[in-house]
Amino acid sequence: MVPRTEAEQLDLARAFARRQGWLAETPSHFADLWLSKSGLVRFDSGDEVCRLGEATDGIYGVVSGSVALALTQGATVRNPVTVHLPGSWFGETELLETSSARGFFFANRQCELLAVPRAEVLRMAEERPECWRWLGLLSVRQIRTGLETLEDIRRRNAAARIAATILSIGRVRWRGNMPEPSNEIVITQGELAALSVVSRASVVQLLNEFENAGLIKRLYGRIRLTDATNLRKIAAQR
Questions:
Q1: Contact predicate 6/40, CB 8 Å
Q2: DSSP state, 47?
Q3: DSSP labels for 110-177?
Q4: Domain 156-235 falls in which CATH fold?
Q5: Can you give the pLDDT at residue 134?
Q6: What's the average pLDDT block by block, 10 residues per block, for the chain (238 residues)?
Q7: How would you classify residue 193: left for phi > 0, otherwise alpha for psi between -120 and 50, otherwise beta?
Q8: What is the pLDDT of residue 169?
Q9: pLDDT score for 11
């Protein structure tokens, strides 16, 4: 197979972002303009992408791999509170304001991101004020996801918390969440335990039960969703 050129890889990344996630919910003229200002950047596993609460270099969209947000709890501790999979965008909050919140986005897998520079975002917004509307939509999506996550982790039932976390990361928490929901999520058992606030031993036990029931299939560092409908029923338990 002939290796793709950088320009070809950028075109493929833009085509993917146009049909996935936030941009798929915006008008085509805005998506085209937005993507025309984007460039492809790559990070190795563990690399820091940007800091929460500080002015960032721009807004990022995940094309491959995954990016996690960890709250700062010491020099070396990384406990992810959210995971961004392909189709997700982040960094809009830091564009709108800086805050005292402390944490950072880091690549928890080798990843490719589309990056729209801060200066380009501000220039677009100045020339086309409607950009703020679509950035607002992105923020609303993030807030909604955060509220759903908070509601999920308050459930006393550990199986419900794990099921809800898997569905949320896979973007199929509710029917019709996304135009093209992810069938497979990249996550370790330790990361799933941290996100769902469940012990790792419980995660292992419950994933075994889910797999035996035909709801998921476990792969190395991944979970494949095979029956989202019945997994939702477990997630609905209190």
A1: yes
A2: -
A3: -EEEEEEEHHHHHHHHHH-THHHHHHHHHHHHHHHHHHHHHHHHT-S-HHHHHHHHHHHHTT-SSTTS
A4: Arc Repressor Mutant, subunit A (1.10.10)
A5: 95
A6: 80 92 93 96 91 75 89 62 85 72 82 94 93 93 81 83 87 59 74 85 94 92 89 87
A7: alpha
A8: 80
A9: 94
At 72 the pLDDT is 66
Contact 92, 142 (CB under 8 A): yes
DSSP bridge pairs for 115:
39, 60
Other Cβ atoms less than 10 A from the Cβ of 199: the count is 11
Give the pLDDT score at 236: 86
Residue spans per domain, the chain? 6-150, 156-235
Spatial CA neighbour of 113 closest among 66, 71, 78, 70? 66
Pick the CATH number of 6-150 from 2.60.120.10, 3.40.50.1820, 1.10.3720.10, 3.60.15.10: 2.60.120.10
pLDDT at position 117, please? 92
Strand order in the sheet with 222-225: 184-186, 222-225, 216-219
> How far apart (Å, rounded) are the C-alpha atoms in residues 54 and 148?
25
Which burial class, exposed, middle or buried, applies to 104 when counting CB atoms under 10 A from its CB (0-12, 13-18, 19+)? middle
Give me the pLDDT at residue 179, please.
40
Separation CA 97–CA 117 (nearest Å): 16
Which amino acid, residue 63? V
